[in-house]
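pipeline/complex-builder :: batch 7 item 3
reading input block
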Amino acid sequence: MNMLEEKVLGIIEKNSRVSTREMAVVLGTEEIDVINALQNMEDAGIICGYHTMIDWDKTDIDKVTALIEVRVTPQRGKGFDDIAERIYKYPEVNSVYLISGGYDLLVTLEGKSLKEVSRFVSSKLSTLDTVISTATHFILKKYKDHGTIMTRKYEDQREIITP
Amino acid sequence: MSKQEKLLAEKTVGLKPSGIRRFFDLVSEMKDAISLGVGEPDFDTPWHIRDEGIYSLEKGRTFYTSNSGLKELREEIAAYMKRTQGITYDPIGEILITVGGSEAIDLMFRAMINEGDEVLIPQPSYVSYEPCTILADGKPVIIPLKNENEFRLKPEELRAAITPRSKILVLPYPNNPTGAVMEKEDLEAIADIIIENDLYVLSDEIYGELTYSGSHVSIASLPGMKERTVLVNGFSKAYAMTGWRMGYACGPKEILAQMTKIHQYAIMCAPTTSQYAAIEALRNGDDDVAQMRESYNQRRRFVMHKLEGMGLPCFEPQGAFYVFPCIKEFGMSSEDFAEQLLKEEKVAIVPGTAFGDSGEGYLRISYAYSIENLREALGRLSKFVKKLRENNSGKK
């Protein structure tokens, strides 16, 4: 990865809506170079998507997010990959991480209600052969997500004019 | 003699009020104005630095430090000077922790100036050199810098300003308000003149970390210059720590000793909490500085692009977080321009004259703002410029 690609990532990680033209301006390069950098990184799977950060709590749509610690029996020759795949294929699963420490997989899940999430854990996740145990944690409030503080808006507290 | 005159010191009463003050009052009346007029970072102090300040309070480190500041901090500054400039300063006697860089400026003048000694001040530059010189009974000698030299100090300009009474040269680079820098070659070109004429240098390098082409070079790193330079720096700009009031001076022992004496009587010591935070900044703050520098650099390019788009001439500044476009085409004074811009478009931009008469015909635009804020404010400036041009062509 070159320097330009790194800088492009630095910008779009925070704001993926910045135009290629503006990126070219602020990075002191040509727009075509930015377009190529984005294309290369998309092709290489470095950029996997352009999402929107939503604070669902501020909408009237009900959503619950859960973090589920999963302990599993790794399979010979496959390790954790097969079981991870079985879990991530469920569309309601947001993320699956292999974790060091007291358990193996960390699964995040979004559902409409506690009931829905519970149902998924008890009927789908726990019943998988290789799953030894699960522990479900519901998220009560998001303070900060993807580097963005959700509970406070930026306010310029400086004096309006200073030398 | 009126009662007022008896009450107050003539020297102080005679000081010109800061040009920024008047403008500030004007802006304060305008509630919905947006500003490009701030001379400090928009970033919060990085959390790990704030956290050290808080921790020091929790630990009860609430006492005076030694007059020259915590030894640990002076040692970190010595290490920083060594690694960034290759200059060796003795933490004992050659480094003094001050209340912001501003205090160090005042101290150096008061430590060195005898009545009538001349201080050479290139302008446009920060507002405090001239009044501090006067308060120390010195005589300010202004060197007006030129746009065509990108506001660098040229050897012939320096030479022309020197008299037998010249004692101190102020070198305010990277520069507020112009964004100008002095590169190594520029400094080399004036170093000989400084030595020949036995001048001392106040090198105000508070924006040193905010240099966008190559890295900052201090004049103190040139041969023969360390012993005649008081280098002033601080934490305000590089680490976004303006409110902590943390600055320092590095220089020859005999000068620093006198500065320390004044500091001891007037201030005692710089704030203890801030000193602990500053240690953390120097130890673990390099990444923060690099990140903020990259952000400023992106904004700098953004602003230059917008100015180009509206056809306002401006050299490309390589330091600090200001650009200094020329507005001479409109035939208005900087103040009138700024005032009218404020009234019509509700954008506050500081007129160049706030930083000396040679700032006439220029504006100082600060880019210590988010891109969104810059976009909105510069959009309004663009509209204003267009309107002025239309009016002017209508008159012809």
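note: Chain B touches chain A through 28 residues (CB under 8 Å).
queue -> next item
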